[in-house]
Amino acid sequence: MSIVKIKDKMFETSITEDAIKARVKALAAQMSKDLEGKNPLFLAVLNGSFIFAADLMREMTIPCEISFVKLASYQGTTSTGKIKEVIGINEDLNGRTVVIVEDIVESGLTMTRMIESIGTRNPASVHICTLLLKPERLKVDLNIEYVAFRIPNDFILGYGLDYDQQARGLKEIYVIKED
User: Fold this and answer.
1) For residue 16, which of 177, 172, 175 has the smallest C-alpha distance?
2) Which residues are registered as beta bridge partners of 147?
3) Comparing C-alpha atoms, which of 93, 100, 110, 83 is closest to residue 147?
4) Could you say which DSSP state residue 114 is in?
5) pTM of the entire predicted model
6) How many CB atoms lie within 10 A of CB 125?
7) DSSP state, 120?
């Protein structure tokens, strides 16, 4: 277990690089099986999901496409609760199988907003794939079909997730270390 200092906080390893790689590979295998013949469009939510989305795409064994959307609701280590769409969806989703790729689902409010936005564009189906899920934080009922890890309500970073825009490039996921 390693410890890193990012800005003013200490973090310790929570999920190892090997564990992440294994779960991403397993998720991609399941999604490739479930979505075979559908040429799914992955909508990766920036900034946090970019590494997860890239690794997931490399493990997919079926044809698929990717695009990016950017929604913001975080400031420092806490959610502002206000979701602001920064970059929208430009693809034609009519009749498409869409997979929202998210780094972390906490309250579910961001995901609800994404589903509402996508639903107005007549997709054939919408699926959710998240690297991390905090089940006890969910405020809405969501069908999250693909979850790499269920985690407690701790502040985490690494593997695309940040603390004030720092540490996204860490290969493991770290949890804040309490004194």
Assistant:
1) 172
2) 130
3) 100
4) H
5) 0.90
6) 12
7) T
Token duo for residue 67: 């695009």
pLDDT at 78: 52
How far is CA 31 from each of CA 104, 106, 161, rounded to the nearest angstrom? 18, 22, 23
**What are the strands of the beta sheet with 125-133, ordered from one edge?**
78-87, 65-75, 41-46, 97-105, 125-133, 146-150
Give CA–CA dist 67/41, Å, rounded.
7
pLDDT at 86: 43
**Start-to-end CA span in the chain (Å):** 16
Residue 83, SS3? strand
Give every residue of the chain whose pLDDT is below 50, as ranges: 77, 86
CA distance 123 to 97: 6
Rounded to whole angstroms, the Cα distance separating 89 from 68 reads 8
Confirm if 56 and 65 have CB atoms less than 8 A apart: no
Residue type, 52: F
pLDDT at 72: 57
